[in-house]
Amino acid sequence: xxxxxxxxxxxxxxxxxxxxxxxxxxxxxxxxxxxxxxxxxxxxxxxxxxxxxxxxxxxxxxxxxxxxxxxxxxxxxxxxxxxxxxxxxxxxxxxxxxxxxxxxxxxxxxxxxxxxxxxxxxxxxxxxxxxxxxxxxxxxxxxxxxxxxxxxxxxxxxxxxxxxxxxxxxxxxxxxxxxxxxxxxxxxxxxxxxxxxxxxxxxxxxxxxxxxxxxxxxxxxxxxxxxxxxxxxxxxxxxxxxxxxxxx
Length: 248
Description:
This protein has one domain (2-233): Rossmann fold, CATH 3.40.50.300. The chain has helices at residues 18-31, 48-51, 93-105, 125-134, 147-162, 192-199, 212-219, 223-226, 230-247; strands spanning 2-11, 36-40, 60-62, 65-67, 69-71, 74-78, 111-118, 138-143, 167-172, 177-179, 182-184, 203-206. Helix content is 38%, strand content 24%. The radius of gyration is 17 Å and the shape is globular. The longest helix is centred in the C-terminal third of the chain and has 18 residues, at 230-247. The strands form three sheets. The protein has an eight-stranded mixed beta sheet with strand order 5-6-2-7-1-8-9-12, with helices on both faces. Strands 3-4 form a two-stranded antiparallel sheet.
């Protein structure tokens, strides 16, 4: 197993579209010719299996290790496969770190250019333990324009800085609604860029509302696999910036 680069996709508040963004970043990297693995470590709500259409499957075990699913050009493994679908997972930091270590080291990832880790939302001991265990090369934080969400982003930035994880940038999801070439800011004008400027962190992209995205999630087919349009080009911009920052 040779994993060249490992980075996280995180959010400091739930419901911001973190896992959806993580899947589409993974697909976009794969479309660029990279070997990509996606590890769903969201113990609070592992949704990657559903987003990739593998929610009703179980991973094979070969030589004592999990065989990740190969779908849409990426390899995927989820902590959700270790628990029943309707079961709540109550794991503290050390227990989670042990389980996560098993998922990483007991999975046949093979050679990867990038392993993307979909973090659980929040800024507590679970996230700290995971960050230290994974030795991340960096993380991307997903947010929405609301001030409450942005305040949590600042807490998240401070947490990752304290544990030595570089912030690759922030993606603002559900930024605006585009109608007839006019941007309508449902949550009001965004303050994300000005707040991040004070933290010396880049805003990688503003993703608008897109009515096709919920259907792609329900269908288990990532948007960037099915569509090549202005919305998917924003993910191209995001991934290009991530790759550039990781190379530096």
